[in-house]
Structure formats: C-alpha cells, structure tokens
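User: quick one, sequence for these tokens?
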C-alpha cells in the first residue's frame, strides 16, 4: 500500500526538523544500510519490495534496516526528529506507521 500524501508530508517535515544532525547520521551509515532505510522511509516500500528492488534476500533487508535504525537512534542521541513538530500545525509524524505483514 502506498503512503498517503499526509504521510509523505509528515516524513519530509520530520526530516527537515532534524536538519543537519539527521543528514550527518544518514551520511554515517553504510551504503547498503542507507539504501534500505531510505527505500522504506522515503519511498514507502515494504521489506519484500526492497529485497526485490535491490536483489538481496528479505532477511538481509530486515537486518540492514534494523542496524540502520539503531545507528540513527544512537547518532541522534536517542531523540526522535519528529518530536519538535507542533501538532497544532495539523501535521502528524508518520513514525507510528506499521509495516504491512507478509504472508
């Protein structure tokens, strides 16, 4: 299922709020980990779609995504870049989105 326009806007606003710290954290990731993370977070692909797109096993996608998320959390000091967004602006962070289960 493709992300909604609201989810895409929320993702962009969240990334903009993090600014240079997020850019530096992303730059610090290994290429494979960064590719997987961006395909999930920005392109909205699920793990199976990422595996097919990159020609890598599903389990590799899961491990790279987990590692990338952990390293980002560590690089950002455990903060959530979306925390600085004012809910009164009418934009809610997409951080609560759940991945679709695979059969």
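Assistant:
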């Amino acid at each position: 299922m493709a992300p909604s326009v609201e989810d895409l806007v929320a993702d962009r606003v969240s990334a903009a709020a993090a600014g240079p710290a997020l850019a530096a954290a992303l730059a610090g990731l290994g290429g494979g980990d960064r590719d997987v993370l961006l395909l999930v977070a920005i392109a909205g692909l699920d793990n199976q779609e990422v595996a097919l797109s990159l020609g890598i096993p599903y389990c590799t996608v899961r491990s790279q995504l987990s590692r990338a998320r952990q390293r980002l959390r560590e690089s950002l000091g455990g903060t959530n870049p979306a925390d600085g967004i004012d809910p009164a602006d009418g934009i809610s962070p997409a951080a609560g989105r759940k991945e679709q289960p695979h059969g």
